Amino acid sequence: MDSDKYDKIPLQPDHWDFFELPPFFTQQPAPLSLERQITLWSSLILDHAAYHAKRLSLGVCPVLRCYSVNSDIFHNPGIRRRLSPVGARVMLEGLAAQHSNHCAVLDEDADDFTVLVATNKGGFSELEQSLSSWLLEAGQGTTLAMLEEKGAVMTFDELAENKCLEYKLKPIFFLDCSSEKVPIDDVGALNAEMAIRSFLEVLAKNPNILLRPLRITLFNLDGSNKKPYQGVKFGG
Predict the structure, then answer these.
(1) What is the reported pTM?
(2) What average pLDDT does the chain have?
């Protein structure tokens, strides 16, 4: 598979320079300045996610990262500045709007608004294709139409242990990122189980992401909607 087939997401070359400036941590009031600020923060977050994803840390999912309004991605202790949760939400909403195949809202809670970021070049659509292929080749159906009709119940342990999101991504082509070390630790890291849980929550809320939507139902054995869910049903 050739990495050139993917659309390129341009990085703003100066986003880490702005990270050292105090005004970058205050939501800008002028529309044009705010638009530029959102673009810079979006570029910085994607760069941060892809940089750490390429390090392939043990126990960490390489293709997904998670960022909330309280994440330390919005904190620079060197200049003692942190973007407010309100401002951080504006930046994360802008990121999701600008890069819908690589960023989606995971939790709209006002106090902890959170987005999920895909670090592979093919984004969410490529991860969905990998998941669908794994489900079919694991014997859950011969076609997506059959799987949608009969349904399949899986545990998150099964999905995580089989690395279903990476099943067809060999090798993984990551988003472009900085060659030099970024100044923030891997604050968006997710383990395999949390990654698949988060991805399925995003798909359940945003079925239009999928090329061929599968009905996704997250459930608990007692019928409650309390997180974390105990299982997932595809189709049916």
Answers:
(1) 0.90
(2) 89
